[in-house]
From TrEMBL:
<dbReference type="GO" id="GO:0052832">
    <property type="term" value="F:inositol monophosphate 3-phosphatase activity"/>
</dbReference>
<comment type="similarity">
    <text>Belongs to the inositol monophosphatase superfamily.</text>
</comment>
<keyword id="KW-0378">Hydrolase</keyword>
<feature type="binding site">
    <location>
        <position position="92"/>
    </location>
    <ligand>
        <name>Mg(2+) 1</name>
    </ligand>
</feature>
<dbReference type="InterPro" id="IPR020552">
    <property type="entry name" value="Inositol_monoPase_Li-sen"/>
</dbReference>
<keyword id="KW-0452">Lithium</keyword>
<dbReference type="GO" id="GO:0103026">
    <property type="term" value="F:fructose-1-phosphatase activity"/>
</dbReference>
<feature type="binding site">
    <location>
        <position position="220"/>
    </location>
    <ligand>
        <name>Mg(2+) 2</name>
    </ligand>
</feature>
<comment type="subunit">
    <text>Homodimer.</text>
</comment>
<protein>
    <recommendedName>
        <fullName>Inositol-1-monophosphatase</fullName>
        <ecNumber>3.1.3.25</ecNumber>
    </recommendedName>
</protein>
<feature type="binding site">
    <location>
        <position position="90"/>
    </location>
    <ligand>
        <name>Mg(2+) 2</name>
    </ligand>
</feature>
<dbReference type="GO" id="GO:0047954">
    <property type="term" value="F:glycerol-2-phosphatase activity"/>
</dbReference>
<feature type="binding site">
    <location>
        <position position="70"/>
    </location>
    <ligand>
        <name>Mg(2+) 1</name>
    </ligand>
</feature>
<feature type="binding site">
    <location>
        <position position="93"/>
    </location>
    <ligand>
        <name>Mg(2+) 2</name>
    </ligand>
</feature>
<dbReference type="InterPro" id="IPR020583">
    <property type="entry name" value="Inositol_monoP_metal-BS"/>
</dbReference>
<dbReference type="GO" id="GO:0046872">
    <property type="term" value="F:metal ion binding"/>
</dbReference>
<dbReference type="Pfam" id="PF00459">
    <property type="entry name" value="Inositol_P"/>
</dbReference>
């Protein structure tokens, strides 16, 4: 049977590559850096330009499809995931990295139908790595199959996380308390690429055993979530149970036991949901 969404996925890969070129070119220019929810939540004209480029290109080809885009939501659009085919876009995941030319910056495109993820594309544009996953068909990096780590022992693991963009003392205290608990399991190390999408691709590639974060948004993790699960990994909420991409909380791991061990150590909290206006 023909794959209904393969065409859309091929298109997403081509657009992500084009968007990546725009991001790479922009690194050479002077940037105008603006802020959103706080003085450390950065945005540039390139984030906005790349999101418009992606949305306009998709609209030409798939005029009935809907969008959730980081910069469109920042500009006041609703963050609504319906049953319609929906493109979930982070034009630059790792904007702070981009501003500082720290070399982990991704274009992230998730695609969902009936609230089920159909494909995910993460283009790590400074590394020139194209990560892709199609539901039920595996995950790939530059065409090579991906598989999560087979490490079963958390004490032999590397865990990825981020500090996020909240500087509220209560949230920062909880972030440090979780980090301390996890570090002292003890684990081999804690890392963070500065891009949720790339952290998830690192889980899918078997370079780290798990990634967790509270404060991410649906556009940061929509594509990466499918890439992790198609590479054989698991997704969980930070308190255990199923992940809810609107909840701004995620654990992605190579296996359930590692995810559950991390959950035990997380001092959880609940930021305002993405779908709450
Ligand atoms: C951010 C990055 C960062 C993570 C933040 C995200 P953005 O996305 O993924 O690693 O810690 O929670 O919001 O703002 O660069 O698209």
């Amino acid at each position: 049977m023909a794959d209904l969404w393969q065409n859309a996925m091929d298109y997403a890969v081509a657009i992500a590559r084009k968007a990546g070129e725009v991001v790479r070119d922009a690194l050479r220019d002077d940037m105008k850096v603006m802020t959103k929810s706080s003085s450390v939540d950065l945005v540039t004209q390139t984030d906005q330009k790349v999101e418009q480029l992606i949305i306009q290109s998709v609209k030409e080809k798939f005029p009935t499809h809907r969008f959730i885009g980081e910069e469109s939501v920042a500009a006041g659009e609703a963050c609504d995931l319906t049953d319609s085919p929906t493109w979930i876009i982070d034009p630059i995941d790792g904007t702070t990295n981009f501003v500082h030319a720290f070399p982990f910056v991704a274009v992230s495109i998730g695609f969902s139908v009936n609230k089920q993820s159909e494909f995910g594309v993460v283009y790590s544009c400074l590394e020139d790595k194209m990560f892709t996953a199609r539901r039920g068909k595996g995950a790939f990096c530059n065409g090579e199959p991906l598989k999560v780590s087979d490490q079963e022992d958390i004490k032999q693991s590397i865990i990825a996380t981020e500090f996020g963009s909240s500087r509220e003392p209560e949230a920062v205290d909880k972030i440090f308390s979780s980090l301390r608990n996890i570090l002292c399991i003890p684990v081999h190390g804690v890392r963070g690429a500065g891009s949720a999408a790339i952290n998830m691709c690192l889980v899918a590639s078997g370079c780290v055993e798990a990634y967790y974060e509270i404060g991410i948004h649906i556009w940061d993790v929509a594509a990466g979530s499918l890439i992790v699960s198609e590479a054989g990994g698991v997704l969980m909420d930070v308190e255990g149970g199923g992940v809810d991409l609107m909840s701004r909380r995620i654990v992605a791991a190579n296996r359930r036991a590692i995810a559950e061990r991390i959950v035990k150590e997380i001092d959880s909290f609940s930021p305002p949901r993405d779908d709450t206006p």
